[in-house]
């Protein structure tokens, strides 16, 4: 599936776990398109943020069951990617500058 670079990376994930990974080992977390491959994620991050990506790990987060009154629904599944950058590269979006 051919995805545009802007469609692959949906948003950054800013959680406590992601912050610890960023500080300890230069890993940044993103929510990505469900059909995106590791190669597409790598190319998109390199092009969007002008950095060098060493490794990409992906995981499918399962949607949770939610209730509103007596109606039960389900949130959709989504994919996240942990991207490891080359020594010295940073993404300013996460640094707050």
Strand order of the largest sheet: 1-2-6-3
| Top-tier CATH class | Alpha Beta
> Which blocks of ≥5 consecutive residues have pLDDT under 50?
none
Q: Main sheet, how many strands, which sense, barrel?
A: 4 strands, antiparallel
Helix and strand pattern: HEHEHEEEEH
Structure summary, number of beta strands: 6
Q: Termini distance?
A: 34 Å
Beta-strand content bin: 35-45%
Provide the domain count. Answer: 1
Helicity, as a percent range: 25-40%
Shape: globular
Structural descriptors:
single chain, 97 residues, alpha+beta, Alpha-Beta Plaits, two-stranded antiparallel ribbon, 6 strands
Explain the overall architecture:
This protein has 97 residues and is α+β, with helices and mostly antiparallel strands. The chain contains 4 helices and 6 strands; from the N terminus they run αβαβαββββα. The strands form 2 sheets. The protein has a 4-stranded antiparallel β-sheet with strand order 1-2-6-3. A two-stranded antiparallel sheet has the order 4-5. The longest helix has 12 residues, at 38-49. One of the early assembly proteins it binds 23S rRNA. One of the proteins that surrounds the polypeptide exit tunnel on the outside of the ribosome. Forms the main docking site for trigger factor binding to the ribosome. Belongs to the universal ribosomal protein uL23 family. One of its GO terms (biological process) is translation. It comes from Anaeromyxobacter dehalogenans (strain 2CP-C).
């Amino acid at each position: 599936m051919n995805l545009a670079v802007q469609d692959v990376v949906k948003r950054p994930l800013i959680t406590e776990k992601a912050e610890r990974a960023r500080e300890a080992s230069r890993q940044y977390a993103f929510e990505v398109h469900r059909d995106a491959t590791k190669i597409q994620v790598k190319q998109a991050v390199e092009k969007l943020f002008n950095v060098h990506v060493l490794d990409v790990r992906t995981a499918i987060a399962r949607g949770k069951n939610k209730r509103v009154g007596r109606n039960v629904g389900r949130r959709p599944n989504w994919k996240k990617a942990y991207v490891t950058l080359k020594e010295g590269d940073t993404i300013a979006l996460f640094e707050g500058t």
